[in-house]
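pasting input
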Amino acid sequence: MVARFVLGLLVAIGLLQTDALAVDATSPISARFAGSDARPSYQKHVLPLMSKVGCSGRACHGSFQGQGGFRLSLFGYDFKQDFEALLGGDEPRVNLKSPHDSLILRKPTMQEEHGGEKLFDVGSWQYNILARWIETGAKDDSADNPAIDRLEIQPTELMFKKPGETMQLRVLAHWADGAVEDVTDLTRFRTNDESVAKVDEKTGVVRAEGAGDTHIVAFYDNGVAPVAALLPVGKQAGPDYPKVAAPTKVDELIVAKLRKLGIVPSELCTDEEFLRRASLDIGGTLPSPAEIRVFKADTSSDKRTKKIDELLARPTYVAWWTTVLCDITGNNTNQLEIAGKYHEQEWSRIWYDWIYRRVAENVPYDEMMAGLVLAVSRRPEQSYEDYCAEMTSYVRSEKPADFTGNDTLPQFWGRRNMQKPEEKALVFSYTFLGVRLQCAECHKHPFDQWTQQDFQSFQAFFTGVAYKRQDRRDPVVAQMMRAVGVEPDEGKANGNNPGRRLAQAARDGKTVPFPELIARLDAVPGTKAYKELKSVKGGSRVITPKVLGGEEVVLASYADPREPLMNWMRSADNPYFARAWVNRVWQKYFGVGIIEPADDLNLANPPSNAELLNYLTQGFVASGYDMKWLHRTIATSDAYQRSRKPNATNEPDRRNFSHAMLRRLPAEVAMDALSSATAGAAELAQFHGDVKSRYIGLKTTQGGDGRGQRLYSLGIFGRPDRITTCDCERSNDPTLLQSLYLYNDAEMYKLINAGGWITDLARVERSKDFPTLVAFTRKRLAEYEKAGDNVRAEKTRAELVKMEAVRELNVADRDGLIEELYLRTVSRLPTADERARALQEVNASESTSEGMRQMLWVLLNTKEFILNH
Amino acid sequence: MSSHLFCDGVRRRDFLKLGAAGAGLTLPAFMRQEAFGRVDSQSKATSAIFVQLAGGPSHIDTFDLKPDAPDTHRGQFKPISTNVAGIEISEHLPKLARCADKFAVLRGVSHTLAAHDLGTKYLNTGNRPLPSLEFPGYGAVIMKELAGDPELPHFVAIPSTPQSGGYLGPAFGPLRTGSTPKIGQRFNLRGLDLENGITLEDVRKRQNLLARFDTAFADVGKNDQLIAGLDEFNQRAFAMLTSEKAREAFDLERESPSINDMFGDDGFSASCLLATRLVEAGVRFVTVSLGGWDTHADNFTQLKNKLLPPLDAGLSGLFSALAAKGLLESTAVFVTGEFGRTPKINQRSDEGGRDHYPRAMFCILGGGGMRGGQVIGASDELAAGPKADAITPDDVAASFYKSLGIDVSKEYQTSSGRPVMIVRHGTPLRQLWA
């Protein structure tokens, strides 16, 4: 005992440097600490041990109020706080004078009452780690220790042959100084799917449970590393795998994974299925009946690829993907008053239009996103008065100026839910990086490398970025207000709302003051962050900004704190920026991301096919962030064009893209599909060109129907409010209310009955001699024109246009109508059987139009209509 | 009212997900729903109402007061006695104090998940959340276990709920009303009224037609949760439309004034009233919710002015109306938030607030044959943890299920074939039947 103490003292005062680890750091910790000679490290052994045995878990001392007067940092990565907790306080847990009387030894061994029960024995390797650390002076070595470089897991892949089989994992920590240590015994393990493989959290032994693939994740210190565990589905895995065509690189990479698992992909889908699926995914729109007929008749071998290019060139592609980008960036009318109150509708429209133009021009993704990241409101050379005049020009009612030519979109920073620096950090990482940082705001992220320090360092980029409200005491502002009849010190009272009057003045085209977006290196005066910064003398709270998982940034060398951030995102080895978008786009095409959830890029949630995601990400960056390259590359693959019909091997597969998955149409797409399926002939003909009036178009902006209302139908079909930082805000699950809506909502009846296709049919059917009616109307038009009655002439002309479209309708051709019905709704021709039964139904109705009305309702209520398949 | 933003930026919304991670094999047991046979004679409930207090209500200021605690913890509110000798609750819950015989207060309920999302999942499923598995909410399990009236929805959420079908699939999800009713007014559930000259005959004819034409995915059938869900909802929509029952139940205009008078005039009260009407009609499970309990700052002002008055009016009305309608014995009521709040008052605002605190919270169970007028469990002198043995959310869930005759040790299969017990670690609280 005395000898030990002396040794510890020598070590403590630096006279003797023993590093027992150097002896054989690659043997198991439990063996190395079985005796009592090895010298443990606080960072490398003591804290990981306390995490491994559960001391720093949320249920125990990791709780925010501690447990039994002893609090550790949650998931144990706050070295300083934990060190103080161990050695400080009224009742220190560590007894330097009498190490073996330390509470951290006596309690977990139940020599003293312990709520957390017995965790290890006296003299065990766990005991020895803690005891030896105390005996050697209980030093915090975290400041001197190199950071962890990576965790290495052996074997690199767990390829099982049958359920019940087990394999042992071994975990090696690689430290930045080159040291390597076996830390298996101190590693926490987790399986991502217990139905495929289970892992013994104590030993790291993995057991195969069922067919499929998943990952086992290892956590040690700040390192997180996944290892794939696979159990083939069938006997056809590996060398016995049948020959499967893989015409594109995407297919090669997918088939390579399927081969390992013995999963054979489904056949390619039919032309009709392809056209419907691609039209919905690329352009959020059902193909028109005429288009389907032409596509079916086309015999060229590359017609699918040509169709993909055609779809990508349409305004419907632009509208739908603008909507997707508005989801991710958070365009919500109710959140935008900070960019200028009472102009929320205008900001939202401007937001949509700005993105729309860039998608239409296929502006590189990084450039478009830089327009948000680096947004400025007032240009450096611009005076405040000129800036206000410019802003007024965008919101005036009469011929508002076009905002889309501006390089940036400052309104993004005006979102109400991203005003505090920490909110900005969360929104920013969600939107541009697909990373959920929430956990690290308060403690070490349980499933990723992020620490609270990382969060604060990242947040530091945003303290200097904020919208600044116009100061009414500023003479320039005051004068501008007076010029439109508002006194600067006017308050809201008795129904008088000076803010509203200012907004109205701007709508009338009179220049009023506007808030502006400030980006500076410290903090924006007037904000909470600024007050906090100034309240601390000597700037001790100033945190050096650091990009996620990267380098510290010296802000002083930049004019705008966001600049180094954007540079980092654009750097070739950035692990998030391009990947996040690639994965999100993939998810929209397949219903499941290569990383799923698609907006949760973290080390413990690895891609189902890393090679595939890497290939697409690298290709996307190499293409110059060409969004159409990405869409084309995905859509032209066999993988995308597979049938939904499974075979004996691939039915359970949900993550390896071996067959198409059924997906409910997204809210806006579903509502548009209802509109087009029921539309009159004239309206339908314009449906693909006119995106303004479409739900996938501007109408989808939150409240973008111009009245700030939330549309009931879009709500029940799961349109996102765009408030939370989660892709899951958009829900594509079915609900009872959706069924009730399709079945019996007044809006549905209106679509079917009022002015659409069925009305056309009824009209033609009622007028026995339609050509005579047309001729009569023509004659009437000529008379009005002659008489100079422009109003009536105009009306009649519109009537004629409708009639011309209806003219084609041959009510007598019931068979043709039934074909049209199927093409309008489920985008295919009816089978012979369906045709016969539908015909029978229509024939039995009191009139053709009544029969068709009934059948239209039926088809709109089929699963085939509301699903993308 | 339907959405509250919590301190962690998470808005309460359905975390509906299609089944569990992994494959999608067997399922739809709603096809083979079990007959209503009871093995447990103590189980009296045939319906249930779940009251969600979203945000995490402070236990020490409501049902678990500590008048002798130091200033740093105690808070501003004083205890008052109730109509049950020895039970005291907050002075701002006078109406509940007058019907304390109708429910049991559970104190020292304890868990460890201090995030809204996770705590909410835990308390809404009775299972500690797992990353790989989405557990079904109570409503989903009840829908699966207790055969319902085909003319009524089995699981109604007023206006919304975080409970989903989980691994049972979306077919077991709730019907969300989306908005809150008003006392004395017809609550218009869209799509439920027959308008536009549509007759019941028309609806029946259409359903027949639909069955003949909606055949494209017959081969997928019940193996796919999405297909199963769509089929289920279609069937249910049809059944509801062709019945008067649902329309009547949702029509608050038809409620008697004497019942109306038991409630306040706020939305939560009206929701509670609607819940009693739905249960009366035969709906198996109804959730109502009152949000805004995330009182990090200005805890006392918020409780006193904004939160406790509607809770007091609505919840006392709920128990009284159930009793008046003769439904209390057959209706289990479960009231809970996702966690309690820190007994130590923080200094975030002048008057202070309380932060997330899962280690001690309260729950309320009543009706359904569970003995009211008692306190079960206890917290320590600072309300900082259970005094002796903790009651876990799993235990509360097991008790709730027991009142409904549901055997929680029963195993379900997830879509990937994994067997999972209804409640994995809970034991019913014996005192409820003692």
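fyi The domain at 47-433 of chain B is CATH 3.40.720.10 (Alkaline Phosphatase, subunit A).
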